[in-house]
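Methods — Computational structure assignment.
A single polypeptide chain was analysed. Its primary sequence is given first, followed by the predicted tertiary structure written as structure tokens.
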Amino acid sequence: SIFGSAFYTLTGFHTLHVAIGLLALAVVFALMASGKVRRPSSGAKAIEYYWHFVDVVWLVVFSIVYLR
């Protein structure tokens, strides 16, 4: 059905982007924990913006799929 296809496509793509965000955050955490990076760089801030964007997109997806 169209609903099932849309549901699995939206949640699958969102899961993929969450996994990418978690991997990027883990890399930044590892670099900061090892002492190679002392202060958050512009790359770390970009990852932070990406993570919050994924979060906001999930709110939209959740509202459309589950609350509608």
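Note: DSSP finds two helices and no strands in the chain.
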